[in-house]
Amino acid sequence: MNYQKVLITGASGLLGHYLCRYFVNRKYDVFGISHNHRIEIPEVTEISCDLLDEEQFSQIFRSVAPDLVIHCAGLTNVDTCENDEARANKIHVQLSQFIAEQSKKIGAKMVHISTDHLWDGTKVNVTEDFPTSPINAYARSKFKGEKVVLEKNPDALIVRTNFFGQGLQWRKSFSDWIIETLVNNKVLNAFEDVFFTPISIPLLSEYIFDSIQIDLKGIYHIVGCERISKYQFAVKIAEIFKLPLNLINPVSYKNAGLIAGRPMDMSLSVEKIEKALSKKMPTIEQSVQSILSLESDNVKKLN
């Protein structure tokens, strides 16, 4: 598909910020919406906006007139969502509905970033059509957001994912936390009984771009092809970055005392996306290697 103007929400977040760079490097006109933090990418037209202000956001849609809208903004702290489900619904449901409606109205392609938290964790490598069973406010609001997006804009692409990679000063990823903890010679406790199928931000961005080019519609899981525990993932990161393995302790999620319940298995099937793109999703090794040069520089700075 031939898109020229890209509007990205959550452009100062982990994925949104990287997508801004990704599309700029491919000579797109990129407009990034942020609220609390600057984007600071010279080629990106930065727009400061409270996304819940529908009048202000409507004006942005009219003035930018994007061909493509990538909705990355969200309330990602699971416990915060649990403590304020009304706010989670405003951000994940009401806002998503508004963006779906506005995108449909102006004929823009919409890509909606979702999550792997939508089940109770009793099934492994779940498929896109497997019935959801959310166990916390974050997951409930994200699922309702998916549903309303497709109701209002059936041509939208929903991307369920779980990503890692070099973060920002104000927003660190899981791999950042692992690296910084070990570089500082601190003990790292990682869940040995929580499983997921992570993908690096650079590779996720590539597959999102590929999906847009062939105009995929509906729900797709874009994650890594390997199911791994949080503990084994930390070990893999430490091995590749040559960080001390003896500082990593396997612990149980059951003893964590978190406010909101979390699914103990978030692994997703990638069969549908692999068939659509005619390519394999990355292994853990491939994903970590894709961030190696960037994170190696980060390790040097921390040392």
Question: Can you describe what's shown?
Answer:
With 303 residues, the chain is of the alpha/beta class. The protein has 2 domains: 184 residues, Rossmann fold; 91 residues, UDP-galactose 4-epimerase, domain 1 (Alpha-Beta Complex). Helices cover 42% and strands 17% of the residues. Strands 3-2-1-4-5-6-11 form a 7-stranded parallel beta sheet, with helices on both faces. A two-stranded parallel sheet has the order 7-10. α1 packs across α7 and α2 packs parallel to α4. It is globular. The chain starts with a strand and ends with a helix. The mean pLDDT is 93.
Descriptive key words:
two-stranded parallel ribbon; 2 domains; dTDP-4-dehydrorhamnose reductase activity; 17% strand; NADP; RmlD-like-bd; EC 1.1.1.133; NAD(P)-bd_dom_sf; 7-stranded parallel β-sheet; alpha/beta; Rossmann fold
Spans where pLDDT lies below 50 across 5 or more residues: none
CATH structural class of the largest domain: Alpha Beta
Q: Helices and strands, in N-to-C order?
A: EHEEHEHHEHEEHEEEHEEHEHHH
Number of DSSP E strands: 13
CATH superfamily of the largest domain: NAD(P)-binding Rossmann-like Domain
Helix content estimate: 40-55%
Report the mean per-residue pLDDT as an integer.
Answer: 93
Instruction: Report the structural category.
Output: alpha/beta
Query: Could you give the distance between the termini?
Result: 45 Å
Radius of gyration: 19 Å
Overall body shape: globular
The tally of structural domains comes to: 2
Q: Report the biggest beta sheet as strand number plus sense, adding barrel if it closes.
A: 7 strands, parallel
Number of helices: 11
Largest sheet: spatial strand order: 3-2-1-4-5-6-11
Family: Belongs to the dTDP-4-dehydrorhamnose reductase family.
GO biological process, one term: S-adenosylmethionine biosynthetic process
Function: Catalyzes the reduction of dTDP-6-deoxy-L-lyxo-4-hexulose to yield dTDP-L-rhamnose.
EC number: 1.1.1.133
